[in-house]
Amino acid sequence: MKMPDPDQTIIEAKSDIVAALRVIVPGEGVIVDEDELRVYESDGLTAYKQLPLIVVLPETTEQVSRILKCCQERGVKVVPRGAGTSLSGGALPLADGIILGLGKFNRVMDIDFDNRCAVVQPGVTNLGITKAVESEGFYYAPDPSSQIACTIGGNVAENSGGVHCLKYGLTTNNLLGLEMVLMDGTVLRIGGKHLDSEGYDLLGLMTGSEGLLGVVTEVTVRLLKKPETARALLLGFETAEQAGDTVAAIIAAGIIPGGMEMMDRPAIHAAEDFVHAGYPLNVDALLIVELDGPQAEVDYLIKEVSGIAEQHGAVTSRISENEEERLSFWAGRKAAFPAVGRISPDYYCMDGTIPRAQLPLVLRRMREMSEKYGLRVANVFHAGDGNLHPLILYDANKPGELEAAEDFGSDILKLCVEVGGVLTGEHGVGVEKRDLMGAMFSEIDLKQQQRVKCAFDPEALLNPGKVFPQLHRCAELGRMHISGGKMPFPDLPRF
Description:
This protein is 35% helix and 20% strand. It is α+β, with helices and mostly antiparallel strands. The chain folds into 5 domains: 8-101, Uridine Diphospho-n-acetylenolpyruvylglucosamine Reductase, domain 2, CATH 3.30.43; 108-225, Uridine Diphospho-n-acetylenolpyruvylglucosamine Reductase, domain 3, CATH 3.30.465; 228-327, Alpha-Beta Plaits; 344-430, Alpha-Beta Plaits (2-Layer Sandwich); 434-472, no CATH class. A hairpin with a 5-residue loop joins strand 8 and strand 9 (187-191). It is globular, with a radius of gyration of 24 Å.
């Protein structure tokens, strides 16, 4: 993994850049001390580290606007950063760039129960939104496992999902409006409390753009009323293939659970040892299926799902009897990533999405890859929508194991594309999947995506080195190519 070569003229001008930034953000808002910069050297993809040139911590949209304009005038690269929980290296710093930290944007600006929405700053945590509205029986639906720490601004950047995104959608389905700042300092508002906007879907374009197009400074989210009833089933299977077939059968029956998650044996044991949720330890695969809605509907669907699971070989079945037990079922799944961290010095968390029907095949192929590379893998899936999170276990202190883990992960993602899926479901491309984009997109596709970036950031100063295997200059993308003295399509009229 190679990042763009640092611009030595920018590094040499560091003191002047710092002075200019301190005029905009006085006090302790500009960080240059090496020990303090080290806090920002990586995000959740800790295999890669790089000290930033400078860290700036603004508190207002005006300051963000002035910072970006200042950086554009000086040709300084900018990496926006929220809580740094990105698992794809989306917030990896640059040696000749600043980290624009948005942690001080942490206020809930407005709660509007009549319109069922809330306006928050990007540094508010995902779980913080639900905590702010739960007293009135409302909540914010997308719930990544890192929801206690990850921020809503980062969720917008990566289009994050969570265990309940099967029924209630990802970030893009629960977003109503944004305030954002472009690289030239322009402040834009997109959408709002209304349900839809005219013209181009700029809100959809920004969601999942990974900090390449602009810096989000305010977010309007949709609030949902808490369901009347919610109950969860724990279903154990002797094989992962049986569990995968059960997932497909539940969806085929027209049942859309609030959440449907899957773990394999290594993940089950790690989570149970960590949380003591009461998971069965004698199974190779565990499904957690949550059904919510009116009491009568939930009771009916529990019987239907139980019957489908029995038909597909479930050997254990347990239904939550109260809210405390339902939450305990989910506690193990939510803690699966840190739990696996207790059984391996390091792990590499992948993120790809496949058609549900391909789940048994992909699980079988991953077991073969595990034997090939000599590395264990613990699988945690958003099974209902085919979003896979294989955790490849390795030891970075053993020569060659990190490289083997990367190759293993690359093969998994290529397999996802091969069976009709995509490279990422919710973690983003970042640097982790950047060099695999060619496995999914043609050169024409990638250049078209880069033209969108050029429209927002012509100098490619926002989060460069991420997403695109090779970032062309905007002038190159718009250039007319002449071959053999002839323009392409010479018969077309030119204006």
